[in-house]
Amino acid sequence: MSPNRTFVIVGGGLAGAKVAEGLRDRDFDGHVVLLSGEDHLPYERPPLSKEHLTSAKALSDFTVHDGDWYRDHRVDLRVGTTVTALDPTAHQVTLPDGSTLAYDKLALATGSRSRRPPIPGSDAAGVHYLRTVEESDTLLAALQPRSRLVVIGAGWIGMEVAAAARGHDVTVTVVEAAELPLLSSLGAEMGTVFAEMHREHGVDLRLSATVEEIVTESGRATGVRLGTGDVLAADAVLVAVGAAPNVELAREAGLAVDGGVLVDARLISSDPDIVAVGDIAAQQHPVLGTRIRVEHWANALNQPAVAASTMLGGSEEYTNLPYFFTDQYDLGMEYVGHAPPGSYARVVVRGDVVRRAFVAFWLDGDHRVRAGMNVNVWDVTDRIKELIASREPVDPALLSDPAAPL
Fold first, then answer.
1. CA 169 to CA 263: how far, in whole Å?
2. pLDDT at residue 34 in the model
3. Which of 106, 197, 239, 292 has its CA 20 to 30 A from that of 162?
4. Which pTM value belongs to this model?
5. Distance between CA 188 and CA 185 in Å, rounded?
6. Claim to verify: residue 229 and residue 251 sit in the same structural domain
7. Are 237 and 123 part of one and the same domain?
8. How many C-beta neighbours within 10 Å does residue 63 have?
9. CB 16 within 8 A of CB 34
10. Residues 54, 56, 58, 60: is their CA dihedral positive or negative?
């Protein structure tokens, strides 16, 4: 391969760094340029709502590679550089100073951003969002003992922050429009498990609730007014109502976009010289037989190896099942598979839900396993993956029996 070829990666998070790593691991000897909008070396984001927020990890602990790695592997990392335009016909991207950079192959790893709903007062001081390490630092500073935090949204970020805040002896109230936390991710049965756990740890859950405004005084948030008129006093407010994929660059360039950048099994977009990875990739999944886009760390970690192979002319497909994890209080959990609302008929549990040491399985109407979640039970993820990939019916009674081997 010609050493004069230039491969450009847009996006300096975990996915972007791993594409660069994948290219060098596959002996690409051309130019690799990694363009990052943030001013940091690429880092992983899960600790922002977990270990970093509990002060257990510093940024250096979850930085993907140190600066020497980029130098030693001849990766031209340009931090603080947000691409303003993409021209697939000319094979070039436009940089903030108006200059252009030509590419032979391009990887889009632009990630996602916090959703910012139009709540009155949401731009006041003391209102937090969580996507960057600076935002995590600012939120951590606000978690003072006996202070009051109101979390708007009971998804993964909201519940992980609630757990971390309780560890700092913060009074926490979570406001959620749905009737249970994590309902869209886990369904009612497992959403109930998390609701009970947080209540046991002193979290005030306001479910099936709406937010009218964030109340302010002298430009600073002092509380959250609910649809009922009740006002929840707050020293800090976290808005955690999901993430929006950063697909504007792709859409304006004319790439096919529908909720994410549409890619095939090899992560190729509608332009054969452009791949997309991580949060923005809406992949036609070869194992699940459907198009999925998941905002999980595992995709950012593992998709780039396939993307690098594809950029180099390989035929490898991304077949990994969706995977994510959480740590809240004394609960550690791993989830693998894909079981969105309406796709499954029942949830089967083996183990002790009360003691939170169990495995849950989401089964479709034909008794096939679509997803599994292990809670404080370890070394079973590979078996769960095999059950899902087999697409064979299982006996629910055997599945629920801890004595029956998976």
1. 45
2. 98
3. 292
4. 0.95
5. 9
6. no
7. yes
8. 18
9. yes
10. negative
